[in-house]
Design brief:
- It is a single chain.
- It contains 21 helices and no strands.
- With about 500 residues, the protein is mainly α.
- The radius of gyration is 22 Å and the shape is globular.
Length: about 500
């Protein structure tokens, strides 16, 4: 990287911190910090939802799979998310918003105490928080690997640099800072992605490379599913991503909660769905062509995108692409930190410390900022002490994808009217049973069991969790409740005046 590249990266960090400082003035209370007071425009909510859904992992682990296997990574990752979010626009987007507007909910898990009971809420809160801190550690490692590849910066310094900048604007500006930096990052990452796409197109002599490269690549590279990514894996991941990206990943639920009305939240979800279907194609085409430009990297494919950038981009543009990598990671981490802070301060701390319920608005806001700071600091510590080789893909697939189903199923299905009779027994059994299934399979995988493929470790916890939820909740022990039914019914439509205003 040259001087101009560093100027671009430094300018990017400065703008992100400046946005966080400016956003600080918009934060008057805890509702502003966690849900933007329900005043976020639908288009900003949609862009923020999209940007908060992926990170530099795409340019490390997923880019490596695109290099080695071709088309399949778009099919089982981006396509499942895009279609899943489109479905969720009609099932969940407005529902999340109405939890805030009708019931004053500020944390995605806050409603679980009423929908099921407090123990169910606490199990999901602790399991999800533990999962998220490891997930974010993988994001830090991913962006540090890219910074090391482009500029030779030591991994520990890369984690510290990006982490501290994210910490500053997240602690100051809350969800408003997250969303506004998401928008700025959307622009920067758009320019960076287009720059790489245009450079690759110029290398091959025009846009026709999009359909001509496949004849020069191994035949399997054009297969929708290949390698360890089977139809079972695809079907399991489709259900997981549908749940995850419609609120099972708690930070994405916040984007819907921050919109003015349920109808506005639905529009934001449809915008995010469109971006998920289209934008990853722009990012992946250079990686599908990469074996023809930087061949022989199968053994070190996690660095393939870095080598592409060095080979294809002029001075200044390398810095822009690197800023694009930062933008993805910082968008996801800042939104995760905000929602974990909401869960800890609204759902977990009051059960451990009764004084948390007696804090005034100013003290609650200060506590939220301290919690955000500590969460980011803990995730950075894990990243700094991790063995980075293969860490990113292992966490994203074997941990996050495999455990997301058991955590998300009671949370997401509990908002739908078809499952009003499902009570806390089914919810707790579903989460605990799914997580225990994952733990057993993970141990077997560590012991090199041939039975535990990627498809098995992703699909079995999901299947066990879903079967337990439906079988216990609808057949063995339904637990109907007038209060639960009234809560679920209230989430199905906006008030008439809100729909007109939207």
């Amino acid at each position: 990287m040259g001087t101009l590249d560093w100027v671009v990266v430094g300018g990017y960090f400065f703008v992100m911190v400046a946005i966080g400082y400016w956003s600080r003035g918009r934060i008057k209370n805890i509702a502003d910090f966690f849900t933007a007071g329900g005043r976020m425009p639908w288009w900003l909510s949609g862009i923020s939802h999209h940007m908060s859904g992926y990170s530099a992992v795409m340019f490390v682990a997923f880019a490596a799979e695109a290099y080695r296997l071709g088309l399949t990574v778009y099919i089982w990752w981006a396509l499942t998310i895009g279609v899943g979010v489109g479905i969720g626009a009609f099932l969940w987007a407005g529902t999340w918003n109405r939890l805030r507007s009708k019931h004053g909910v500020k944390s995605p898990l806050e409603y679980l105490a009423r929908r099921y009971n407090v123990p169910t809420q606490q199990i999901m809160a602790w399991a999800g928080a533990a999962l998220k801190v490891v997930d974010i550690a993988a994001k830090w490692v991913a962006v540090a690997l890219l910074l090391q590849g482009f500029a030779g910066v030591p991994i520990w310094l890369g984690i510290a640099l990006v982490g501290v900048v994210t910490m500053v604007y997240s602690v100051m500006g809350g969800l408003w800072a997250d969303a506004l930096t998401d928008f700025g990052q959307f622009i920067i990452q758009g320019l960076a992605g287009i720059a790489m796409f245009v450079a690759v197109a110029a290398h091959f002599g025009g846009i026709s490379f999009m359909w001509e490269i496949w004849d020069q690549l191994p035949e399997s590279h054009s297969d929708p599913l290949s390698g360890q990514y089977t139809m079972i894996f695809f079907m399991a991941l489709f259900l997981i991503k549908t749940l995850e990206y419609n609120g099972g990943m708690w930070n994405l639920a916040q984007r819907y909660m921050a919109a003015p009305t349920g109808a506005a939240a639905k529009r934001s979800a449809l915008l995010s769905s469109f971006l998920w279907l289209v934008w990853p194609l722009i990012l992946f085409f250079p990686m599908w062509a990469a074996p023809l430009i930087v061949p022989g990297m199968e053994a070190n494919a996690e660095q393939a995108y870095v080598e592409m950038g060095k080979a294809m981009l002029p001075a200044g543009m390398v810095g822009l692409v690197l800023a694009g990598f930062f933008s993805h990671t910082m968008a996801m981490v800042s939104s995760d930190a905000n929602v974990i802070s909401a869960v800890i301060t609204r759902d977990m701390l009051p059960r451990l410390w009764k004084g948390a319920t007696r804090l005034g608005e100013a003290s609650q806001l200060q506590l939220a900022r301290i919690t955000t700071f500590l969460f980011i600091g803990l995730s950075m510590t894990i990243a700094l002490t991790a063995d980075t080789k293969g860490f990113v893909l292992k966490v994203v697939i074997a941990l996050v994808a495999a455990t997301m189903g058991p955590i998300a199923i009671p949370l997401m299905l509990g908002m739908l009217p078809w499952f009003k009779r499902v009570g806390p027994t089914a919810a707790m059994s579903s989460t605990i049973g799914g997580l225990l299934t994952w733990a057993v399979l993970y141990v077997m995988q560590l012991n090199k069991s041939e039975f535990v493929t990627q498809a098995v470790i992703v699909s079995w916890p999901l299947l066990v969790s879903l079967v337990l939820y439906l079988l216990i909740g609808l057949v063995i022990k339904p637990e109907p409740s007038a209060d639960r039914a009234a809560l679920v019914d209230s989430l199905q439509s906006d008030d008439e005046r809100e729909s007109v205003r939207a």
